[in-house]
Write a sequence for this structure.
């Protein structure tokens, strides 16, 4: 949902202070600030489906699911993003009020305006997060989930889920069914 | 790949029709898409890759192709023009109109096609049983992403950045990044 650059230049600290006083959400990359727009109904429904599925399955574990409104800091890229859904199992993250930094799982639901960024530059930045084990790209139009899983050699293994199967989130030892992910989507 | 022309064709009709056209067109499930020209850097990098491959493939049964050869993906009823392809299939290397069993495809990203090359086009390419490696070349980031098919039919992404060699394991070839980005000014 990253949109127009606002031609403001900030330090990361200044951005955090400034953004608290804004009406809308903004992402931040290396000094530049980007306003975010709203999302389509389908996008909101699918993000919600995934969050609910994760929250339910993570009950009683040290891991927590976040949806839409939590910032992710990637210090090596000097960036703050708002991923659609994240899971963190890191104790420091669970206590942090402003942002998290150590997600195990990040999920982006594609929309027309962000597809290129989610698959490209944003994934490049996410790959720099040492804690990240799995990155899911959800394509509603194609009813497809692409799961990138970090390997021992620090590469990323792409497994594609299509049809009525279960998406395995091996880092969390969880399965989400495609039917749950796409519930209420025509 | 650009504007749809709102023509609906069978694959056979598309092949006959496209031969009479001035410009190139891709084809997906009955729909035809006109292709535009590319920027200079895009052409330079495609040529660098194809030249390096051609040189290294000499004396093997494999052949490198650039830009103007069509790829047919029958299971999705599509024809594409990948930037660079390599096929080691004897039938492909005698075909006149298109090939259908490449071992390697390389796409050089441009602003207008980046999302498609990473998304739906790659999803279509993944359906090619012959395909072993898919390279996405990002000139602005001076980065090559190599997706390699695994034994379990997944795809292993390895990222090449800096002055390293890209390993094309399916062809047993190494391409130095310096060769891929030759004559491109650092930004």
């Amino acid at each position: 949902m990253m949109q127009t650059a606002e031609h403001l230049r900030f330090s990361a600290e200044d951005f955090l202070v400034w953004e608290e006083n804004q009406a809308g959400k903004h992402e931040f990359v290396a000094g530049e600030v980007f306003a975010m727009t709203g999302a389509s109904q389908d996008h909101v429904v699918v993000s919600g489906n995934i969050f609910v599925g994760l929250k339910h399955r993570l009950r009683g574990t040290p891991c927590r699911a976040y949806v839409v409104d939590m910032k992710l800091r990637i210090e090596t890229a000097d960036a703050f993003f708002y991923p659609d859904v994240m899971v963190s199992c890191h104790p420091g993250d669970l206590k942090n009020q402003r942002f998290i930094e150590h997600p195990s799982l990040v999920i982006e639901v594609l929309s027309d305006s962000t597809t290129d960024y989610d698959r490209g530059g944003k994934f490049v930045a996410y790959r720099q997060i040492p804690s990240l084990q799995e990155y899911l790209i959800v394509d509603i139009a194609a009813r497809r989930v692409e799961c990138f899983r970090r390997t021992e050699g620090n590469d990323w293994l792409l497994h594609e889920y299509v049809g009525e199967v279960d998406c395995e989130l091996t880092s969390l030892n969880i399965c989400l069914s495609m039917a749950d992910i796409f519930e209420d989507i025509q | 790949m650009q504007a749809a022309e709102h023509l609906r064709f069978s694959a056979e009709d598309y092949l006959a029709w496209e031969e009479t056209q001035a410009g190139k067109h891709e084809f997906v499930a009955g729909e035809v898409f006109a292709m535009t020209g590319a920027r200079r850097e895009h052409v330079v990098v495609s040529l660098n890759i194809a030249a390096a491959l051609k040189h290294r493939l000499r004396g093997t049964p494999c052949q490198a192709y650039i830009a103007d050869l069509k790829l047919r993906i029958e299971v999705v009823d599509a024809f594409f023009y990948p930037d660079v392809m390599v096929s080691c299939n004897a039938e492909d290397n005698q075909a006149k109109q298109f090939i259908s069993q490449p071992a390697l495809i390389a796409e050089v990203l441009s602003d207008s096609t980046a999302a498609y090359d990473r998304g739906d086009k790659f999803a279509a390419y993944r359906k090619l049983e012959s395909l072993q490696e898919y390279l996405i070349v990002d000139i602005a980031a001076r980065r090559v992403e190599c997706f390699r098919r695994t034994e379990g039919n997944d795809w292993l992404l390895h990222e090449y950045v800096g002055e390293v060699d890209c390993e094309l394991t399916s062809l047993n070839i190494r391409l130095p990044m310096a060769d891929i980005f030759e004559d491109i000014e650092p930004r």
Summary: The mean pLDDT of chain A is 93. The radius of gyration of chain A is 16 Å.
